[in-house]
Each structure stands twice: as C-alpha cells, then as structure tokens.
Sequence to fold (1072 residues):
Amino acid sequence: MKDIQSQADHRRINIKKVGVKDISYPITVLDKAKLVQHTVAMVNMYVSLPHRFKGTHMSRFIEILNRFHGKIGLKSFRPLLEEMKRKLEAQAAHVELQFPYFLKKARGRANAIGMAEYRCRMHGSLDDEEEELTLEVQVPITPLLPAQDTEGLPRSPGRWGVANVQLRFRHFIWIEDLIQMVEEVISHKRWAISPVTPEESSLSVESVTSALGERLASHPDIRRFTVTVENLAEGYSTFASLEWPYNEDESADELVSALPCRSTAGLN
Amino acid sequence: MKDIQSQADHRRINIKKVGVKDISYPITVLDKAKLVQHTVAMVNMYVSLPHRFKGTHMSRFIEILNRFHGKIGLKSFRPLLEEMKRKLEAQAAHVELQFPYFLKKARGRANAIGMAEYRCRMHGSLDDEEEELTLEVQVPITPLLPAQDTEGLPRSPGRWGVANVQLRFRHFIWIEDLIQMVEEVISHKRWAISPVTPEESSLSVESVTSALGERLASHPDIRRFTVTVENLAEGYSTFASLEWPYNEDESADELVSALPCRSTAGLN
Amino acid sequence: MKDIQSQADHRRINIKKVGVKDISYPITVLDKAKLVQHTVAMVNMYVSLPHRFKGTHMSRFIEILNRFHGKIGLKSFRPLLEEMKRKLEAQAAHVELQFPYFLKKARGRANAIGMAEYRCRMHGSLDDEEEELTLEVQVPITPLLPAQDTEGLPRSPGRWGVANVQLRFRHFIWIEDLIQMVEEVISHKRWAISPVTPEESSLSVESVTSALGERLASHPDIRRFTVTVENLAEGYSTFASLEWPYNEDESADELVSALPCRSTAGLN
Amino acid sequence: MKDIQSQADHRRINIKKVGVKDISYPITVLDKAKLVQHTVAMVNMYVSLPHRFKGTHMSRFIEILNRFHGKIGLKSFRPLLEEMKRKLEAQAAHVELQFPYFLKKARGRANAIGMAEYRCRMHGSLDDEEEELTLEVQVPITPLLPAQDTEGLPRSPGRWGVANVQLRFRHFIWIEDLIQMVEEVISHKRWAISPVTPEESSLSVESVTSALGERLASHPDIRRFTVTVENLAEGYSTFASLEWPYNEDESADELVSALPCRSTAGLN
Fold:
C-alpha cells in the first residue's frame, strides 16, 4: 500500500529541468556592420524533461557545446536547440547567452570611448512546436551634458541610469537597430534633469519608460516587450517599467530582476 | 484621427510598476532561537499601478522606509505593504528583501565556522485581496568528508554545490526549520560522490533534487515550491530543478535565475 | 650533493602566509552615537610565518574566530591579533574586515534614505613589536542638485562618483568623524559640473582629490593617507589619487585597487 | 605667514596618479597556438605625474585608446605606454588588462568543456628608464576524481580551489606555457584529499603552494613571483602564499588581494 502511494507521489514530483550553466565561452555574434563580432559569453544550456522522465546524461550538453565550438551565436541557435532536444530526448530545449556587445561610437564626443559596451542576453527555446527568441539589451542613459570646459576637458556628469529592453520578435531585428531605436528616443527629446526651456522634457524614469514604450509598440517587428528604466540615486535606484501588451494579471512571483548588472556568477 | 489612435495607444502603454531598489539597509529578522537577528539587506520596494494611472511620488517610498527604520523585517511586512498600497494609491505593493542569515553551527566539526551563512530572499506582496509571501533559501551541500588527518588538520574537499529552495507557505515556517529540513535530507542519506557501500547514495543534482522534492511535498505547511540543486564542476555547473505542484505548461520566458550568487546590485 | 642543493632551495622557498578568508560574519562595530552598530563583515585572518616554519593548524583560525564570536569589532582587534600570533606561533598576525557602515542622515533632503551606507575596510596587523591599523572608507559624491521640481518630486542627477580614503592614525578617529570630514570638503565648496558663478568650483577628480588631500594632511591625528576620487563616466571612470607623505618611489607593482565597489560580499 | 605655510603644504600634497579605469574593451591576445585570440578585457590606463604637476587632459587617454582600437594586446603594450608617457608628459605610464583567456582542453575527460577559461591580468609600466611587465594567471585545481560511474555519467566532486601565480619575466613566457607548468605540478603528483597509497600526496594549500614555488623558482626566465593557493571550504577559504625571492620585510599594508575571482567584469 505504502509503495503505491509513494509511486503516486513520485509521478508528481519529477525533475523538470536539467542542464549546465555558467560556462564562460568565447562566441561570435553576427554584427550588422562587421559581419562577425568576437565576444565572451556566459552560457546556460538546459532541457525541460517530459513528465516521468528517468534521468539524463549531463555529459551530452558538453559534447554538444564542444561540437559547436567557436560557432555559438545567433545563427546556430536553431541547430543547437534541435540537437539538444534530440540527443537529450527532451520536451523543450533552452539556450541562454549573456554577453557584452560592442558598437563603434560615431558620435564625436571628445570623451567617448571608441567602443560602447551594451550588455545583452539572448534566450532561445524550442518547444514541441515552437521556437522562441527573447532578446534583452541594456542601454545606458546620459542626460544633457552641461556646456563643456573651454579647454576641451570633458567632465562627466556621472551616470544617470540605464534602460533595459526585453522583447520577442515577429521578424528578426539587429541588435544594432534595437540599440539605435532606444538611443534615438533617449536623445530625440531634449531631456533635462530640470527643464528650463519649453523644448526640454523632464528626465524621469516614468517619462523615459513611456517614451520608449510608445516607440517600441509602434514597431511592426516587435511582438511583445518589457521596458524598465532605472535612475541611479545616492545609495539606491528608482525605476519604472511597463510591458506590452499590457497584462492585467499580476503574478506575485514576478521579481525585479532584468539583466543582472555585473552579476558575479562564481565563488565570490 | 491620428490623435485618437495615439490616445488609444496611450491607454495600452501604461507604466505598470514603479519603485525604488538596491537599497542597502540594516534590518532585524525574527529568529526562532534568539528572537532578533541583525543583518543587512538589499531592499526593493515597488507598486503595481492601476491601469491609466498618471504618476507617483517616488519620495513616498523613501518616507515609508524611513518611518519603518530599523524595524524592517518579517513582522513588519504586512503593515509596510499596507502603507505602501495606501500612500501610493496602488493596486498592489511589493517588498523584496535579500539578506544573509546566520545560524550557530552545533555540529562539532573542527573546521566549521561558528556561524553558518545562508542567503535568503523574501518577497511579500499585497494585491487587492490577497497577501503572498515567498521565501527563498540557499543551503550549501558538502559531500561526505574523507577521513580526517590524524593530527586534526581538517582538509576541505572543496565546494560541491548548493540547494536553492523557493516556497510559499500555507502556514508560517521558520527559516531555521526550513534550513534544518533541507540539511536533514542532504545528510540523512549517506551521499557519496562514488558510492562504495550499499548504504551510500550517489550524489548527483538529480538525486538530491528528487530527495528534497519528496521531503518538501510532504510538509503540510508548504503550498508550492521550486527546488534547484547545483553542482560546481570545473569551469561550469550542472543543475536540476523541479517544481511542485508540477506545471505542465512551459513558459519560454522562464530563465535560470534563482537567487543570484553574490549578485552585485550596483554599477559594478 | 643534489639533496643539499635542494634543501638550500627549500630554505628559500618558504610559505610566507597562511590563513582563512572570505568568511561572512555578523560583527558589531563601536559607533560614536549609538555605541554598538550591527553589520555583516567579510573577514580575512592570516599570519606571516617565520622563515623556515613547517606548517600550521588551519583549524586554529576558526577556533579563535569562534571564541570571539559576536564580538569581532574594533575593540577586539588587539586581543584577536595577540591570540592569533600566540596560538599560531607566528611572526605577525593580520585581520581584515570589510563591511557596510550605516549612518543616519540628518540632511533634510526629501529623497535621502534615512540610512546612508559607507563601505569600510579595516586592516589590523601585529608584527613583532608594532600594531598597525589601516582604515579605509568610501564616501559617495553627489554634485549640486539642480533646483527641485515644485511638486516635491526629487529627481536624481545620477551618481557622480566616489571618494576613497585610506589612512593610518596617530590617534584613533571615529569612522563618523572621518566621513564627516570628507563630506564637509565635498559640500563646503560649491562644486558644480560647469561652474557659472565665481563661488562655484569645477567638480573634477583632480580638484576634489586635492581639496581632500589638504584637509586630511592638516589633521593632527592622521599619520599617512591615500585619497582616490573616481568619476563615473559613460562606460568607464576617470580617477585621480594622491598619497601623503608624498613618496617619490614608484613601485611598478602598485595596482589601482582600493576598496572594490560593491564587493561587500556579506550583503548578497 | 599662513599663506606661505599653505603653499608649502601644497607643494607636498600633489596628485600622483590620474587615469581612466574599468573600460570594457574587446582585445586580441597573441596566442602560442592560434596566433590571435579574441577576448574582452577590463582596461585601466593611468600615469604617474611628476612632482608639482598641474593637471592633465583626461580625454587624451581615450584618444590614445581609440587610436589603438582593436589592437590592444601584448604586442602593443610598449608603444601604448610610450604614447601615454609622451602625450601626457608623465613620469611613468601604466596599463592594466584583466581578461579571460581560453585554451582548448586536450585532456580527454568526458565532462571537460572544450575551452578552459583562465583569468589573467597583465600590468605593464614604463618608468623613466625601465619597462616592467607583470603577468598573473589563475589556474583551477581539481583533486583526483573518484572512479567514474560505469554508465559514463561523470560527476563533479566540486571545486577544490585555485592557484594564483603572479610573476615578472626575465624573458617572455607564453601564457600557455605558464599554465602548463602550473597544471603539470598540480597533476604530476597524485594529490588526494586523504592519501591512501604511498604515491599520493596530501592535497593542502601548503603542499601545493610549496610544490609550485619550487617549480617556478627553477625556471630560468622567471625573475620574481608570488604564488597563492586557495582551498574553498564550506563558507570560507583557506590559503597559503609564498613569494620568491623571499622578502623578510613585512609591509603591514599588504592585503590579501590577488586577482579577484569572477571580477572579469566584461563577462556579465
């Protein structure tokens, strides 16, 4: 009797996901301008197991990763997911990449480093029928710079904050184009911390979030998105976020997570 | 015409959440043994705004936090959430605390530090009708220590991994009791990396996840939970996770997040 | 012959330091106002071994730490160092504490959280004859806030940067007093990113570093110090540093380290 | 009178270093096998100013960095330092690079990822007469794996620890060769947590530190080095370190720093 009960419980208490994570790996990302960009990613690979599944061979994740060696990137998401799903007899396969993405800065600011860094995360999944690709990009926000020193010594007003955009495509969008879209909204209006002229908008997490929301919602290739704008204050941050399409439901589970800023995956 | 369209869009592209985050704050946590434990938390406070809401007063979060000064803790979750909801005219209020929790180690191991650290996260929310409290605890896993040096020089076999338990209560459970439950499962069986006697079980992310799942599912005060067990390998980790009750649906959104190890909330 | 050579090498290739590190531990720090402040420290304890020493008992560090349990703090530095030196038969003993220190904010800014966090590090050492105590404090720097919104909605101009002061005493100085000294210099002058009136000074890493250097050098209780001021720019930082007394020698070893930003690992 | 005093103080309280730091930048490193390896570095560039120097042009660091764009690496250390020294009229110039370095794993372990990551730091400096290059590498240490599961499911015994080697050359040594030297020492002896056969050595921070010290001291191209070996225990680490040539002097300033684990900030 007891064994049957135990079996019943067993059927309901099943491992749902297994995989490997926190693999630091050099990858190449397809880049609109240069074709190939070399960067270093933190890679997670995992599968969703069918109900009642017995176990899996962890070593297969590593074998698959090694087979795609040096060619992990957007182009290889689909075949990578397919191979994971097949080799691991899984219901769904997932790959997550987190990496810094670099763009040449064309804006002629004297103090701008030649390469701007944007933190990105991609999450590709392949379920029974459907492939999903979620792209997340962090774009730094800098307010209007006060007039520069006459001797050409640029001074930084500090870091105002960051916009975090997470979206799903209808059709593929280049990371560059997404970043440009966000930067246009940020620079289009003359945002100022304390507007003094009628042309200037008040720079606040709410106003920037709304402006980004309107811009992204009007893009035909974007199916869903979440925008979070964060303003670094003294000792804390303020933030606002919106999602589109608006979801009335509120999952109490939802945590303020987004892309971890410099999260350190390891031992310290 | 265009304006009407634009207004329609506006109604749908609304700020959903606003708040403050990454506030480092000394808190007191009620502790089964000592009544009060002092620790330092990373605090997030935010509200879900009703549809069509105009804006909010960020300074009110800080005012509320200051009013509860020194008394942020489990006991004050409910009044804190209520005040946030009322003062900010919000539909739902959320407070997240992330903090290290310390327990005296009774196990007489020569090399055990007197205070064991467990990273915890609490997320309390108050929606129109309902209060929810999610508790998350990280418990380190150490395999059977090989026989010690005779001169009493304990050697560490290294760090095997960590169990992460996230749950919702039916009735309140002390953090201590949850940690003890997890540690009992981990130490109950004689886990070994390579079992040599019949009494020993093979230490794997799957086997520990399943054992923890069975134990937690049988606890009357636990309503829902997720368990993730991680094994640190050379240069990466393997992991397994389960959730209970088992949810057939697979949200492609779900990311391998759990409690960030040493997540750095700031700019670096 | 070869063995003698090998022994000779052995005598020169000796372990110099052994110890324990990265222990997250709740501590109490003596606080000018409240007498006792509870916080969480990252603790390192290590000893310098005399030339030719054979080995040491790592477990003794833990035994000593456990004996001082709950009372690790400034007051106990000397007895802790003495016990380490004696029990481990060491030539010198070292204790490092890294912790967030909280001060009540009296400045009536609407958006100031009630508790300001300052990251501190203390390094105490006891050599044959001499005790040394090095104190390091990080003080955030915020430029002049533009005039606030009339509705009392404070907006953050972002994070300008941070001043890092590391010093050795002639006579004990309270952490509060050191912080106050630094904040006075920062707020005394009307620093502005782009000065428009003659009363305002240009806020730059060089100007703030110099102003802090002059203030600290004139304090009778400070024997040596290093000041580093950092300005967060878009994607990088600029910094300036000075040390006093000025040291002409340049050790190529010296790295830009200072207190790591957000490495207060106890918090996560 | 007071002014003269003040001027005297001024002469002694001079800015000593200025520069830029925490720049995330894609770099290429010369690689023994593949000639060029792409990775992402955290870059610091700074100069030591001559006594009494007035100020510097921060923008020049960025201009110089941009000029070397895409070609920051070992080969360009010397010209980079020379240009910094000249353009900034400095007494000494410093460049620090911190980056993950990847090597193909030839060891046929089933669970080994194809690319092993080693964290490296290089610090080049050019003083009036002399160039100095310091190289630092972190090599993970894994104890003898217990016999593997018969089904080929490799199990990780966890992470034992890490060896950190910092050295100055007499003649250039490839990073690969340094890593290989360290890995040979670690794997040459049959280290075991609890040795059971006479061939096995006891794996302890002291024994591994000594073995590495002897190996490195016998290398003709190494002029100076420091070795630190760290063993991850439950909730803390133990460590031992030695430096060669042995330095009797003990600077109380020396902190347990070494390469921060997972601070390769470009990755997150």
Notes: Residues 175-188 of chain B form the longest helix (14 residues). Residues 1-11, 147-153, 250-268 of chain B have pLDDT under 50 and may be disordered. Chain B is about 20% helix and 35% strand.
